[in-house]
Write a structure and sequence with these properties.
heterodimer; A: about 160 residues; 3-stranded antiparallel beta sheet; two-stranded antiparallel sheet; 5 helices; 5 strands; about 35% helix; B: about 350 residues; mainly alpha; globular
Chain lengths: ~160, ~350
Amino acid sequence: MEKIKNFFKTFLLYELVKGMAVTGRYFFARKITVQYPDEKTPQSPRFRGLHAQRRYASGEERCIGCKLCEAVCPALAIKIEVAEREDGTRRTTQYDIDLVKCIFCGFCEESCPVDAIVETRVFEYVGEKKGDLYYTKAMLLANGDKHEAQIAKDRAEDAKFR
Amino acid sequence: MMELLQSLEQMGLDLLGPLWLPIWTMVKIMLIVAPVMLSVAYLTYAERKVIGYMQIRIGPNRVGPYGLLQPIADGMKLFFKEIIIPSGSNKFLFIIAPMLGLAPALAAWAVMPFNDVLVLSKVNAGVLYIIAMTSLSVYGIIIAGWSSNSKYAFLGAVRSVAQIVSYELAMGFALVCVLMASQSLNLGEIVMAQKGHAGFLNWFMIPLFPMFVVYVIAGVAETNRAPFDMAEGESEIVAGFHVEYSGMAFALFFLAEYANMILIAFLTSIMFLGGWLSPVPFLPDSLVWLLGKASFILLLFLWFRATFPRYRYDQLMRLGWKVFIPLTILWVVVVAAWMQTPLWVW
């Protein structure tokens, strides 16, 4: 009996028609394509994009050169040199992130005791020649200055979960 | 309309004498080939759109409104690309293969009737001519595969040829049923044999339904389309027989594949779906019906591609030799017996 049933199912193309019904239904389904330059998907406040170094409201840079981020970085993308500043505080003389090596894991951000190194929502950046994606301290600070409002807002929003 | 054409023909005859005939024929050929080429271009667009929609994407929509200029842009790109000839290849055959692939696909249109008067040449053995032409296109594929001097291209060509040869038999037997039912080899007369008072019930699709299904499936296999696209199985042999081709030479293979698809769609509508005949008695017969039916078959081709995974090679051969050929032979006998009884009303 089962055999006869299968025979007819095969010759009536039962399964093929069933499959085509599925694709036929999806033909009329709502399309989920995001037309990227015109539309963008929503981002989480925890979005991990381009790095930035933050400053306090006074204009003083936050980074104290503890090198925790350098130590935790799994891709060895961070390079830090530290020296004493005239006023006796410990500050970085060099803070470079090689974005070519970086895997955007967010460990540097998490390890930072003063929230100095952060990852912003910026993801649309390019390098046109070798070395363009090697970000120095000045570039990171400039990023921080540029996006401070958004950065502060995201940190505040996420603070209650940390 | 007809008087205008006739007066135009008379005028040309008076003006150029015997020279007029080849010129007038060329004009007619262009009138067939140009729309076919245009439909090929827009079939690629339709394919990308339909498959995109079935995969809940939107398909090309950047070039022109709704992406309508996409095929033009693709054509331009291919046109300006370099044709790379592999150093180990046979140059002459390598260049001539894409032309051999495309030419039969276009030549077959010579006997295609668009309505009871609109046909380039009323050949009495039109069906035989079409079968011969579609079989010839396999030479383009095997020559391309062989002359490329590449193992992937060669494997693709071998697969493709074995597949086309196998499915041609089933296709041929399916057509034998149509020939028996219509008592003619002329495509125009095959359509007229499906004319009657009952509209679509007079079409050969009704008594020959299994043959209709076999013909469509064998047609998909004939044109090397998914799910029978073993000849270019990306996962095993990169792109099959045209792996070494680039630029316009590649584009010719592409054109040939799609031109063959359109040809099969038209043939299916003519043999089984009553060509330009109207499905209901109260509407007039017209070319629009033929185009609509062919478009539906083409939609089926795209639909298949969006739905089914690729066959394994032995499964393909099993389907061709162990299922289709016995089935079609059986149905030939059934139809032959059926036609001797009063139950045959077509």
